[in-house]
Write a structure and sequence with these properties.
The structure is a homotetramer. By secondary structure, chain A is α+β, with helices and mostly antiparallel strands. The first copy, chain A, has a 6-stranded antiparallel sheet with strand order 1-2-4-5-6-3. Chain A has 3 helices and 6 strands, in the order H-H-E-E-H-E-E-E-E. In chain A, strand 1 and strand 2 form a beta hairpin. Chain A starts with about 20 loop residues before the first helix and ends with a strand. Chain A has a single domain, classed as Hotdog Thioesterase (Thiol Ester Dehydrase, Chain A, Roll). Chains A and B meet through strand 4, strand 5 and strand 6 of A and strand 4, strand 5 and strand 6 of B.
């Protein structure tokens, strides 16, 4: 039995971008964070209230067993949710992370990780997002690595 | 644009109950917690890895503005996730909550709350669940009130 | 070896109330939440950025083993932190809980629970608090039951 | 008024290491995680149930404003708590992070960050830790940057 008979409320949400150039807005914010390039992170897809990122495996983002380090997993979760929120911002606004919680449900083992962030509530000041981190092996098989829940705050860009 | 084009990995999970009488197992656990009856909580539906509960509004579970108190919302989140996990337990095991985090995204305003807990990872020792809390008004209109992320641990029943 | 040689930064914080009648302000907010009286909760002490509450054991706030229900523990954590934040509010402002996370580190077993909330960061819009929940037995022996971390938002009172 | 009159229960905890070589055990675990060296992280101090780490600022761990990236802050929180837990492990055991939540209370601005992790509950299977992240400027002035709460699980080393 699957959960398809118990649909999620959050999947029924329709998000409207307030900046028509929301994709360029997210691309620019992504490009402006040196740590993401240093980790080798890639921006895969942006939609209103949604962002997908990709992080290929490298030794220098690994832990003791040769898997993705928890810090790399958490960073991917943070920014997947953050850019999902950023996609709904009016021009001239900025997103900062207030807090987030990550449950690592399985080791980060695979050729790359996928982070998918979704906005579940977009308020005037605060935005709430959910994130799934998937580990993808050499055959393209996906498995759930982590799930996260995040609070973002919109601030005036400086 | 909806999120339907970016399906959740966790919605593809197939959970198999280890106790064929998992519904009775959850009903018994629910009945054994005096606080739930005192709050007026009702068990609506149980499926493998899923549980739905209902909490009608009453003054004695409200806060300053006449809405559901955050404590009632959090309790509903805790047990919706807890019984979702319980549905997958082998006989003779028990669930305890290790930790959970609740984001209250809108005031708990309505005739009743619905809590829907889903297992996203069921391990030998630990289980991870996600929970949505919906507020339902007099016209049956649902809105997202809270979302939660939870860690459960299986222990030997006493 | 104790931790006394590694002092917490947050213990060095000095909080100044913005409302000289902050104690009355918290007492009034506490009295205005019907669920707290229904649970039997008591306001023990308020200081700037600090609040201590007490919750005596009763059957109707218990779970399967005759201990405090997790929902009662979480509610106590939520409001201990919430009133700690409320103590620093200017007059005419209100606190709402944005989110909180509770780790239940031991069963809630004892004659009563003590909740102690502390503000660790008081911003213009958001306040961050930490909470300890202690279980106290018949001999007055305290043990740690739960620890929590919370985000609050100040809003205009209605 | 400070909080010194409301002492934390967790500061009264006395932790006894189960491995007399707990310092070497933590040093070895730290050295075995390539991502930590890549970020430039330094192990400052280990005590039973306590760990302090240091992370100097570099452009490649920064975000849009030239401050520490949230991913670097979260990674520091994760491992500060993780090694605090590791210090109490018997030989031959390993720590994995189950979940953690980080509240970023101020931008990560300074010459370096300090992470201080403390065990608040050390169980047979699960360990709970609290973490403070401090930002330190050129004059050695510390300010609170983040606070975190974490669940760890002990597993057999491979």
């Amino acid at each position: 039995m699957t959960h398809s008979t118990h649909p999620r409320h959050s999947d029924s949400l329709l998000h409207r971008p307030r900046n028509p150039d929301y994709v360029a807005q997210v691309q620019s914010a992504f490009a402006g964070q040196p740590m993401l390039a240093a980790l080798g992170m890639e921006l895969v897809r942006v939609a209103p209230g949604f962002c997908e990122l990709r992080l290929p495996f490298r030794d220098d983002i690994s832990q003791n067993h040769g898997y993705f380090h928890g810090g790399a997993i958490a960073t991917l979760a943070d920014v997947s949710g953050g850019f999902a929120g950023w996609s709904l911002l009016p021009e001239g606004m900025w997103i900062v992370t207030v807090e987030y919680k990550t449950n690592i449900v399985a080791p980060g083992r695979g050729e790359y990780l996928i982070g998918r962030g979704r906005v579940v509530r977009s308020g005037r000041t605060l935005t709430t997002t959910e994130i799934e981190i998937l580990a993808v092996d050499g055959d393209g098989q996906e498995s759930l690595c982590a799930t996260a829940l995040q609070t973002l705050m919109a601030v005036e860009a400086r």
